[in-house]
Design a protein that fits this description.
alpha/beta; Uracil-DNA Glycosylase, subunit E; 6-stranded mixed β-sheet; two-stranded antiparallel sheet; 10 helices; 43% helix; 15% strand
């Protein structure tokens, strides 16, 4: 990406962020502190898409800044993926939660909320034009492909939508934080790093390496 194109992408993302900040297309905005948009660089080769902001992300207005971010950054280093080439965002831009006393407990977005937020997700994709998109978990995969995607049976697959959008599926790093027992944690983390090691190979993509080809009838929300 040239300097001028890079600048244009950055300006477009700034514009989208300002526009998304006033989004009231669904009720989630009422309880959330703010819209949480993606984080640079605008010339990223790879875009990582998670589920939604968590409690801390909602308060600080940045994606992936909690324990899952630390785990993701560590895994990227071990997988030899340059973090400076990675843009991170979420399929849903507001924190969905259930109040429990003074705590706000994560609640998974539903299909309608995922669909409504697809507009912002695809505007980000258009601005950045990443060479590969990594779906971290089922919500991200559904937001990108437009249908329910079972993660475990599609993990490690590249799903190609009608537009040519290439989506590599893996788990969300927060799933590793919920594992019980040292062996399960060690094995789960090693498998996640192994998934991420596929990224560099997939950037040198060949059509023969695409494992799954799925239609995406609602790609342009």
């Amino acid at each position: 990406m040239s300097i001028s194109t890079n600048s244009q992408a950055s300006s477009k993302l700034d514009e989208l962020g300002r526009e998304a900040a006033s989004c009231q297309a669904y009720p989630l905005w009422k309880g959330a502190t703010q819209t949480v948009f993606g984080e640079r660089p605008p010339n990223a080769d790879v875009m990582f898409v998670g589920e939604q902001p968590g409690d801390r992300e909602d308060r600080e207005g940045r994606p992936f800044i909690g324990p899952a971010r630390l785990l993701l950054d560590k895994a990227l280093i071990e997988a030899r993926v340059d973090r400076k080439r990675v843009y991170v965002t979420n399929a849903v831009k507001h924190f969905k939660f259930e109040p429990r006393g003074k705590r706000r407990l994560h609640k998974r977005p539903n299909a309608s909320e995922i669909k409504i937020c697809r507009r912002w997700l695809f505007e980000e994709i258009e601005a950045i034009s990443p060479r590969l998109i990594v779906a971290l978990g089922a919500t991200a995969a559904q937001g990108l492909v437009g249908k329910v995607i079972p993660v475990q049976s599609n993990r490690g697959s590249v799903l190609t939508a009608e537009s040519g959008l290439r989506v590599f599926v893996t788990i969300h790093p927060s799933a590793l934080l919920r594992l019980q027992g040292e062996e399960a944690k060690r094995s789960g983390y090693a498998s996640f790093v192994n998934d991420l090691r596929s990224i560099e190979r997939l950037l040198d993509y060949s059509p023969d390496e695409t494992k799954s080809v799925l239609p995406c009838p609602a790609l342009n929300p």
